[in-house]
Write a structure and sequence with these properties.
single chain; mainly alpha; Herpes Virus-1; three-stranded antiparallel β-sheet; two-stranded antiparallel sheet; 5 strands; about 10% strand; flat; binds zinc ion; CTLH/CRA; zinc; metal-binding; cytoplasm; GID complex catalytic subunit 2
Length: about 150
């Protein structure tokens, strides 16, 4: 009979477990189109990258006494590293559901966007009124938006 106390099970070192956990986290987040980093880290880093552009913009506005008419809209594109660019998530304003490959966002000629299933329900195959503005359109005039 074997002496149980002499059986040794070699477990990977703690660092190997940490690497595996990190890999799983990154793969899982990547499959969802999310960052594996904490949202606070991403927000703080993106803010640090964008800060020089914000300061420059603020100085230009101050010097030239310019006021941009679009509120809460920054008129300059801030280039961020590829690792900080994620797929946008669209939630249909009618059904309140997140879009999927089978139920993608559809833009109507007026520029408003609803999910494909909502568009089908609203239109019932015929001419329909946009739920957000007075414009009417046909389902065939709506275009799929690729996120
Ligand atoms: Zn509309």
């Amino acid at each position: 009979m074997a002496n149980i106390s002499k059986i040794q099970i070699k477990l990977p070192k703690q660092t190997a477990w940490d690497d595996v956990a990190s890999s799983f986290t990154r793969e899982f987040c990547s499959s969802l189109g999310l960052s594996a980093e904490s949202p606070l880290y991403v927000a703080a880093t993106a803010g640090a990258i964008a800060l020089p552009s914000h300061v420059k913009y603020a100085n230009i506005v101050k010097k030239k006494h310019t006021e941009w008419t679009t509120q809460n809209e920054f008129p300059v594109e801030i280039p961020l590293p590829r690792s900080m660019i994620y797929h946008a998530i669209f939630v249909c304003p009618v059904s309140k559901e997140q879009s999927t490959e089978d139920n993608p966002p559809m833009m109507m000629p007026c520029g408003h966007v609803v999910a494909k299933e909502s568009l089908a329900k609203l239109s019932k195959g015929g001419r329909f009124k946009c739920p957000y503005c007075p414009n009417e359109s046909q389902p065939k005039d709506a275009r799929e938006i690729i996120l």
